[in-house]
Amino acid sequence: MSDAWEEELLAEPYRIKVIEPVRRTTRQEREELIRRAGYNPFRLPAEAVYIDLLTDSGTSAMSDRQWAGLMIGDESYAGSRNFYHLQATVERIFGFPHVIPTHQGRAAENVLFTTLLKEGQVVPNNMHFDTTKAHVLHKGGRPVDCPVTAAYDPTQPEPFKGNVDLGKLEELIRTEGPAKIPFLMVTATCNSGGGQPVSLANLRGVKEVASRYGIPVFIDACRFAENAYFIKQREPGQAGRSLGEIAREMFSYADGCTMSAKKDALVNIGGFLALRDEQLYREASVWAVLFEGFPTYGGLAGRDLEAMARGLEEVLDESYLAHRIGQVEYLARRLLQAGVPIVEPPGGHAVYVDVRRFLPHLPQGQFPAWALSVALYVEAGVRSVEVGTVLAGRDPATGDHDYPRLELLRLAIPRRVYTQTHLELVARAIIRLYGQRDRIKGFRFTFEPPVLRHFTARFEPV
Ligand SMILES: *Cc1c(COP(=O)(O)O)cnc(C)c1O
């Protein structure tokens, strides 16, 4: 074990073998670039961005072992050796004997939901991720979020804000009737709640409720390793266990999982559906063939399967996770020390700035979190993402903006990509903006698309 001063320094547990140059721009260039992008950071060419914190999805840096694995990709149509490697790895980590690779996480949702979910049925989750919710709706189902109340309070520093409210869950099962609920889902960590973890005790509780009514449980496992690390750090009695043991126990309470390998499998594309039951696996394989391809490749090349298997072998490494979660905590701490309001505690993959408190002079109708993301780009070439009024869209009934409870700026940290100095630059840029926050102006639409408006909209300063 390292000493306290070493831990505090948070030195990277890897060294650099290949570099990707990133270009720094001048403030004048950035003012022109963002103006030409219609003040929409999604419309910026990535090469005009110095530090890209848009998402942690598919943006990981692969290791030398993963890159080497690409060379032994077996591109056979059926039964590629890389599939067997992936299957053995998934069985060892998650305890599920059956795995169906998919091209990404939402494809695993599509295969599972097509197999199990009928029109008019209800799917409970701590909080549905956007694609999960959309797939439930697409099948004619009704997604219901059952998180603990603390999940909605950005100032309450609870250790497991991703937990399911077991009382609410059981009440829902009773009122709807168990026959209407084909399965329960738990998202770990809970992305829509800010990357907050779920405790082992809570997963055990979900399993108990589910067993009482004979309902299967599936985990949305995108950030399972980050969740396991939080359990080790925060849950009483878990500090002495290995992350592998904790992960194995997490999944022992489930019948299967959906996975986006673009997160905790440390690859740029991929996903899978893993299952305990052979009969269910056979039924799901039928749909997998239709949507994704033969069930031993699932929309991926053999080399992608190999990189995924190797990423899963690396992601539970304790020094990696201590650094990964440590980076997020470091950025959060730097901002808090300077008085910048953020959602507390920070989650596993991102820091969320609480923009209602950062820019109280801007009305929500002038898109404060959007304005802050533009200001941060102009200040330092850092791309972040608004999770606020622009993202929320319009209320179909009234036609007005569907003003969300929280107006947030998300700084998602890609895995193994940026150094401490990069994060320090991000912190200093935000702290500088906080010092001049009165000068930040709001925005209005010059072009507003009818759906998913944040991706392609254009704006002008008010
Ligand atoms: C990213 C994500 C998904 C969907 O995965 P994709 O690979 O983007 O299709 C599902 N659930 C959660 C919690 C996610 O974060």
Descriptive report:
This protein has 462 residues and is α/β, with parallel strands linked by helices. The protein folds into 2 domains: 4-56 and 317-461, Aspartate Aminotransferase, domain 1 (Alpha-Beta Complex), CATH 3.90.1150; 64-314, Aspartate Aminotransferase, domain 2 (3-Layer(aba) Sandwich). It has 18 helices and 14 strands. It has a 5-stranded mixed β-sheet, with helices on both faces. Helix 4 runs parallel beside helix 12. The mean pLDDT is 96. The structure holds pyridoxal-5'-phosphate. Pyridoxal-5'-phosphate is lined by residues 57, 104-106, 129, 131-132, 187, 191, 220, 222, 260, 262-263, 271.
How are the secondary structure elements laid out?
Blueprint: H1 4-9, H2 27-36, E1 51-52, H3 64-70, H4 81-94, E2 98-102, H5 105-116, E3 122-125, H6 130-138, E4 142-145, H7 166-176, E5 184-187, H8 200-213, E6 217-220, H9 224-234, H10 243-252, E7 256-260, E8 271-275, H11 278-291, H12 302-315, H13 318-337, E9 350-354, H14 355-358, H15 368-380, E10 382-383, E11 385-387, H16 389-392, E12 408-412, H17 420-435, E13 443-447, H18 453-456, E14 458-461
Parallel strand pairs: 1-10, 3-4, 5-6, 6-7
Antiparallel strand pairs: 2-8, 7-8, 9-12, 11-12, 13-14
Helix pairs in contact: 2-15, 3-12, 4-12, 5-6, 5-11, 7-8, 9-10, 13-17, 15-17
This protein binds pyridoxal-5'-phosphate.
